[in-house]
Amino acid sequence: GVGCLADIGCYGLDMALNSVGYRRPVTVSAYASDHFGKNPKYFKGDFSVDDFTCALIRFEDGLVLDFRMSWAMHMDTMGDTLFLGTDAGLKVKSPHPELNWGGAWDGSIGDVYLYSDICGNQTETKIPLKTTAKGDNFARKCRDFCDAILTDGPSPIPWQEILYNQAIIDGIIRSSELKREVEVVIPEIEI
Residue 170: enclosing H or E segment and its boundaries? Predict the structure, then answer.
């Protein structure tokens, strides 16, 4: 089965893909483990899913995504989300580092910083975020989806984005099982 990758990893992957414009993936090289789930010191019972997954995802335009997800580890967080560009970088902080929880999967992000050079010096600029009431993001996503169904309107999330996300997850699963890089298969769908 699939654990943290499918449970919470799909949201982190969606955030990263959305941030770079949902580019077409071509290959994945991945690793998954279930150390904590299979170790009776941490869990007693039947456990058949990953508790840690990492992947190197390559896109057709040369972009590379270093993806990591875990729900059991000896660490407080997997770290900040980083976008490393040739002219600037972006850091998305964890929203609740004191809780060891929270992130793209619950609709929240922490502070966002832009790093760039100005006059030969690296600068850090905090990007102001639109504030919403607590819990509002998740409720709004659900409401948009329900409204689309009730009005026979377009999905608030384009199906192509969902397809890319799931094709990458499929590639991660296959690569970790085969212990080698695999091609990401995007099925052709006619509408």
Answer: helix 159-178
Reported for 46-51, long-range contacts at CB under 8 A and 24+ positions apart, including other chains, are 48/1, 49/1, 49/2, 49/3, 49/4, 50/2, 50/3, 50/4, 50/5, 50/176, 51/3, 51/4
Is residue 29 within 8 Å of residue 173, measured between CB atoms?
no
| Beta carbons of 175 and 181 less than 8 angstroms apart | yes
pLDDT for 136-150, tens place per residue? 667 888 899 999 999
Q: Is the pTM of this model over 0.85?
A: no
Write out pLDDT tens, residues 143-187.
999 999 999 999 888 888 889 999 999 999 999 999 999 999 998
Task: List beta partners, residue 89.
Answer: 84, 115
Residue 49's alpha-carbon distances to 32, 85, 110, in angstroms, are 9, 34, 29
